[in-house]
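Schema walk-through. Below, the input block comes first and the output block second. Nothing else is stored per chain. Lengths vary across the set, and this one has 240 residues.
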Amino acid sequence: MQTGISDTHRPVMNKALIFAGELRTTVRTLGLGIILSTLTVFFLSPDLLRIVQHHLSGKLYFFTVAGPFLAHVKLAAFVAMFVLMPWILAVFWRALGKPFGVQGASLFFFVFFTVLLFYAGALFCYFVTLPLGIKFLLGFGSEQLKAVISVTRFVDFVTLFILGFGAVFELPVFMVFLARVGICPRSFFEKNRRYALLLIAIIAAVLTPTPDIVNMLFMGGPLYLLYESGIIILLLMRVR
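--- output ---
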């Protein structure tokens, strides 16, 4: 009897359904936590914006009536997610580990190092990549070309860039996970470096808020190094 789903794809579908079911049980609580945290941080957003502005830029301007308010809301939501990231990642890994039998010490390993690498990537972006990238881009200004930066665009640029870096820095952990559960063996990553490099270039182009090659290199370069480090970690862990 034909059911529309082949026996080959049935285990994958079952695991996906288990993952979605586990995630659904906690996503409402997580969403409520993010909303409440955003409301709390919103009252601190003027001071936070002043700190970020002093670190990365000069004067900021707004061109719509709601511009400043929306900028503060976006910044508050970003800070709330940034602070709650350990909880967010713990929820994600608990749901992902259920269908693959990852639990106990192994689950703690994935959660701990994912959180660690996320914050490492975010801090690297904030203190190294963003200052260099913004300085480079603003360096094209002149007496005839003066920078007038929208506060909304500035907040979008900074928050998306930091979140993007935090996400891509988690690559080695996901490589270890895929190898441990038997989805992608170590040899897969070793043999497909050229395709990984192409995919990294596409990801860098999509995640960077501006399409210039410098910002793409700032993200793509570290991401490829992380890809190679994932292979080295699998070698050290003797995971095939």
